[in-house]
Design brief:
Layout (H helix, E strand, L loop, with lengths): L3 H18 L5 H38 L2 H7 L11 H20 L4 H28 L4 E2 L13 E2 L1 H22 L4 H24 L6 H21 L1
Antiparallel strand pairs: 1-2
Length: 236
Amino acid sequence: MFSANYLVYIFLLMGVVLSIITRKLTIPAALLGGLTGFLVYTGDGYTGLALLVLFFVLGSGATSIGLKKKQQLGLAEADKGRRTAAQVMANGGVAAILGGLAWYYPTHAPILQLMMAGSLASANADTLSSELGTILGQRFYNIITLKKDIRGLNGVISLEGTLAGIAGAMIIATVYSIGHGWNMEFLWVVLAGIIGNLADSLLGATAERRHLIGNNVVNFLTTAIGAGVCLLILKT
């Protein structure tokens, strides 16, 4: 009998190929993305895979919106937003690790799956906040001083971007709840996304501006914080 798992593996393979053909990812990034999808699926089944695909689709779409304006402002990512392996690891690495752990330690799977959702909520909130906020934002402020600052600088936020980030966290929390049931965990995932996005801006305004760490490290730490928020809530 043809296992449903094989359909998922075929889907992941097709995703790798299409992301290369459409130039959404570099070849190493596409292969790493396929591995990330595999680990997330083994740890959280269809729900985990849906969360990861949703993040990729929304992130790619948000990057494409207003691309010409971003290029004019000098805020567009290099190579039209084509993601590298380092960027895939920065945004999906924590989810992949947690997925692998959920598969290896099935008794701890529920908490690891929640943490995975928290990490992706944080990644999605950060991506939508920065990509859409740059285009939709009207006034921009330094997150630490709350004084007006330059659009696109690390640690600079806008009301519109912040709301987009909250919406991004809520989207991830909604899909997670569809797969795992509606309860307080919905709010926990949303909170994880909001705090993760806030942490990203704080790290950007401090360590990244001082060139102590790069953007990929900031993003990885942001997703780890999102996961950690869910763990902390469960332990309190």
